[in-house]
Structures are given as C-alpha cells and as structure tokens.
Write a structure and sequence with these properties.
The chain is 58% helix and 3% strand. The protein has 818 residues and is mostly helical. A hairpin with a 2-residue loop joins β2 (51-52) and β3 (55-56). 42% of the residues are buried.
Amino acid sequence: MPAGAAAVPAVPVTPARPHGNAAGHGGARRGRRGPRVSFPRWAPVTLRGQLKGKDIDYERKGDLYKDIVTFLRGRSPRFIENMAKQEYSMSKEPAHKKNYQHVEGAEISGQSQSHHNLTEKTECEKGKSSSAGPTGHSVKPYMKWKSSGLSASQGSDKFPKKGSEERKSRTVSLTTKKKASGKSKSVKIQEASKGKASVSFEDVSESSSETDEDEQPVRRQEGSTDLSAEYWGIQKLAKYVKGGDPTATLIALCSMRDFNLSEETCQLAIKDTGCLEVLINLLDTEEIKCQTGSLKILKEISQNMLIRHAIADLGGLEIMVKILDSPDTDLKCLAAETIANVAKFKRARKTVRKHGGIKRLVELLESISMGSSYQAKDTETVRCAALALWSCSKSTKNKKAIRKAGGIPLLARWLKCAHANILIPIVGTLQECASEPSYRLAIRTEGMIESLVKNLSSEHEELQRHCASAIFKCAEDEEIRDLVRKHEGLQPLSALLDKSENKQLLAAVTGAIWKCAISRENVLKFQEYKTVETLVTLLTDQPEEVLINVIGALGECCQEEENRGTIRRSGGIAPMVNLLTATNPALLVNVNKAVGGCAMEPENMAIIDSLDGVRLLWSLLKNPNPDVQASAAWALCPCIENAKNSGEMVRSFVGGLELIVNLLKSNDKEVLTSVCAAIANIAKDEENLAVMTDHGVVPLLSKLANTNNNKLRRHLAEAIAHCCMWGSNRVAFGDTKAVAPLARYLKAKDPLVHRATALALYQLSEDPNNCVIMHENGVVKLLLAMVGSTDDILQEAAAGCIANIRRLALATEKAKYG
C-alpha cells in the first residue's frame, strides 16, 4: 500500500446466523441463500493512520463513522445516487417498524432474535443495500417473501403484523403428494410459536372443487388470547411423533391420547404442528400398534370440520380404505369409524366409493354371522361398518353402490338384532336410502316394515327417530302405508306425539303420520287414537320442520267430514289461518290444502272468512312459487262455494279478478288446472263473469284447449261451460277455435272429462256456427253413446247438445227445401 494512503480494515464475512434457536431444532435453516455480511451496530468504522515500519500507528488520524453505509455516503457520490433509487423502491413496500418475518421453512424462537430484529430494523429504516465483500452478491433479506408463494400477484395479501417482539409466527409450506391423483397440493399452515397466539390460516385454493359439498371449511380467525397449556403440550409431543423410533412414537401417541382430543384447541394443535401428516403416514406402515394409535387419535380429532377436509386432502381416506382389508379386527373397526367421521362431505364420500370402500364395508357386515354366539368384538365391527355406510349413504351414487354390493339383505338381517348401538346406524342407513324407489321396494319385500314398527317402541329416542323417519320416506307408497297399519304402527306413532320436547323426534313422527294419513283407512285409525286433537295442539310454538308435517297431516285428515268438525272444536282453524302469513313455500302449500279442506264445512268457512283467510289465500296467488299459487287457487274453490255472498266477497278484493285471469298465462300445468277450477266457481256470479270477460278470459281459455292433460281438460271444460253464460262469449269461443279441440275430449277415457266436456258443448251449441263445427268433428255419434250414461248430469248435457244440433239441422232443411 502506498505510503500516506488511508486504509480500511477488512471486515470479516461471517455466515448468517440461524434465526432464533434453529440449530437446536435440527440444524441450520433450510432454503437460506448464501452468506451475508453482518455489521454489529457497536463496531465503528475508522480510517487508520499510516504504517511506521513494521508497527502500526493506532492513533486516529481520520473521521469516525458509525457504520459502512455512513462511510460510503460520505465518500461516494455514486453510492448516494444508487441509494436514493433504492430508498424510492423500498418505500413502496409495507414499512414494518418492528419485526420482519421471513417466510421460510425453519422455526423461529426467542434466542438471538433481538439481534436479528435490531439489525433488520436499521436496514429497513434506511433502505440500505449492502455489499457482500469479495463475493459481490447483493443481500436483500426483505425480498425472501417472494419465494414463499406470497407474491404481489395475490393483490391485497400482506404480511401478518406482529404485535410485539414476543409474538412470533411462522408459515410453513407443506407440500403433500396425493397418491390417488399424483398431484401435489400445498397446505399452508401458520403456526404459533412460544409466547403468544398468532394469525393462523389455511390455503383453500382448491375450494372451487367443493362448491357443491354440504359443508365448507371455515378459516380460523386470528387468535387474540394466549393458547392453552394443552396446545403447547401437544406441540412438544409432536417432536417425538415426528422424529422418534417406533417405540418413542408409540409412547408419544399414547401420551397424546391423554389430552382431551374432543376440544378444538387440541385438535388444531395437532394440525398446526404438522403432526396430522405424520399420523396419516403412520397408517401406511406395517407397525400395527402405531397404526392403531394413529387411528385412535384420528377418530377423535376428525370430529373437527377443518381436520376432516385436511385428512381428505392428504390422502388419508385411501389408506383407511386399504386398512379395511387388514386381518386385525380392532384396526378395521377404527378405520371404519374414522371413515364415518370424515365422510361427512361429498368429496370424501366419492373418494371412499372410488377406492372400493363401499364394497369392503358391506363385506364387514357379511363377515359376522348373526346369532347368539357372536361376541362384543363382532358387535363393534358391525357397528363401525354400519356407521361408515350411514355417512356414505348420503350420496345418491353411494346408495346404488351399497345396493349393488348386496347391502340390502344384510341391512335387513341386522335390523332384527337387539343391540341399539347397531340398530341406530342400520336404521339410519335405511332412512337415508329410502328416498330411492328401489330401496322402498326392497324394504317392503324384505319385511323390514315390521322391524321398523317394532323399534318405534324402543327406549332409545334416537332409534325411534330414525325408524319414524324411515317410515316417513317409505310411506309415499300405498303398499307400505297399508303394511304400517297391518303391523299396528299407527298407534305407537300417535303415542310418540307426546314427546314434544324432542323436536327432531317430533318432526320425524309427524312426518310419518302425515304420509300414512294419505290412506283413508289410516285416517280412520287416527280418529280412534285421537291423533287429530293432538296435532292441533302442535300448531303453535313449533319449528318450521314440525309445522310443515303437522299441517300436512291435518290437511289429509280434514278430507274426512268428522275431522273437519274436530279441528273446529279443538280451536285449530285460527292457528291455521295465521300460518297463511308464513314465507316457507312447503309450509304454505300444506296450509293452503288444510284451509281449503276445512272450508268445505260451512261453519268452518264462516270462521275462515271472519279471520280474513280468503283475502290471505288470494294474496298468495302473487307468490312466485308455482306450487304455492296452485295450492292457493285450489283452496279458493271451496271457499267460494261455501261462503255467503261469495260474489260480493270476490269483488271486494281489488284487482283480484284480473290477477286470477292473468294466471292463465302461466306455464305450470297445475297452476293452470287450479286456476281454471277457481274461474269455474267465480263465473257462477254474473257480475264477476262480466269483469273477467273484460280482462280477456275467453281467448286465454281458448289457448289452453289443445292439451292432452285430462285433469286440465276437465277443469278447462267446466270453466268454458260457465263462461258461456255471459253476452257473446259462446260466439267468441267459436271464433277463437276452442270448439273443435273440445270435441276431441269426448274420446278420453276419464268419465269426469266426459261430463265437463258435455256441459261445455251443450252451452256452446246454443250458437249455430258452433253446432256446425261440432257436427263436422263427429260429436253426435260420441254423444249418443253418452245419452245412456248412469250419470244424470252427463246424460242431460249430451242429450241437450244433440237436441240443439238436430234443431239446427231441421231449421236448415226447412229453409233449404221449404
């Protein structure tokens, strides 16, 4: 070095120290970039004096700089210029005055953290870019977040802020390979370290594939309180589960079971520490004890929705399905019960089916022969297999898979056992599958109805509920309704109405009564058991699911005249009318039917009218649901028939007639049929008919004439017959080409259609032009056969129509030939 030149002592280049006590947890941090320059703040940078021979003059001759950056600022204009640019770019990044987080795959703890935080705080505030000495590499510690997946492309995603130096968190990117699909999926879990709780979130980038599932995972919110001692205890045990030999792992698993795994804190501790992946990996080993210990823990923590989804994501279900082939009975039971817990959402159920789980579960039912000799272990096997099938049976394809695997006869066989813990999942599976017609047929032919009725008298309310629910779904078929009555199931159903405090049981029982009441013979039995009176007491202060079934059952029962009087005497009409203001479409449909059934009794109709029930029914014609519209229109028919001064009552509803006429433009067949029936009743009043004619009822009815629906044909013909009574409506129907289609109605096989059509043709035949159209369409021959009918109304209408056509023919001959 030339004499007199200032010298800067070489600054030692030291490898970067691992953050915290990372070395104590398995060595240096993984994924770190090269060495970095470390400048303690307490080390000044000075310009030394010149050499004097072999000795160094230690007296300070130059200036004192607190760090290398200050020195470079004072000596290099180019450095100042570059630093100005660097400060500008750094100002665009979020400024964190406290701890900066490095999102990397290493643990951060309290040791040596203060020095690291202090250094990075200085560098962040000044926005410096240091040189690495001889290597020349630029050290940019703040930019490492780019490699963790938290890139700027995520928009508003930012670093979690730390509240203090004691609150530290890390985000670990766990890449797990799904064996079934061969694709890698990233599950990011933000773990809390020692001291305080921190932000925790789960990457749900795959949620788009779960939009059709019946449960969605919910992200955990940022914790604001200290985590419990159990959380940290499980975190300590996780080290031994991850890194120990089989014996240490087994001991750690046993110790972990000492915690209350039903608590969410313990469940999420297992997930957050990465122990869940290890538990699933243990299932794929040959260590039976480790597999058993892992499954016992997974069985408990899989009650948590987040963990259920995580197990499915990590390929745990596929391994559990394989375990069902294990020769170890306990292991198979644990696997089946864990599958039952996890298969609560669609994707998991599909995974079980795709990997042959349904067939294996059915084989477990078949492997145990029913009889007095089977042991407790056999009972547990059947129970766990039935539980898993119950969870899987919520998917339609799985129901078919159970049937194809031969599950129905096995379910029927185990339905006769005496153990409630087996019967509950067996009946639960049956009631899920009873929505399929093939299962209802099997339930009837396999003799299961008798067992279901028998278990209605069980001491276990859950079993009673599932049996009632199965009958509820099966009783759509008339044969099954008859079997329930034959096996004396109606009486225990009525008795279960007294357990009104159990709402789930009450909903199932009232649903079974509703469907059974569709058969008139069953209604007569319910009259004997005073069921109607009990149902009336349940019209208030009940959840909607109960009300829907109660009002549905009353709607079926009030088709009998005696029950209509019973409902009135029991005070049931007022709560029924009050329910017309509900918003649930299913409830409204049943209420409309019940009110309409009660309105067939004049005394009941007077009460309904006084409670403004008819106006409420009319307002439901505006409901957007076509089922509600149709049921309201059907209910209005008996109301109009049995009300005093019905014509005046209908006219009192402002815009009511226009509303009901416009419903003839609906595309729903049931709405059209019910509205035609209502118009037929309204048109009996001449003034109302005149108003409807002004609103265009004639052309709208004519447009419906070309239909093949016999129910619509019948009520349409009745409406046309009554609408012919005003002005020139008969001529208008001929002009709108409604006569020729009506003539074809006489070829239908329904006698009620014949009757309504004959009445309509009789009224239309008052116009000569219509008679000509009828004659051309061969009406006379068809009507001649109906003149001999035993139905007096049909007979008279057919004869009157033929007479009008004959008179026209005679008048024509007389005019032609004189």
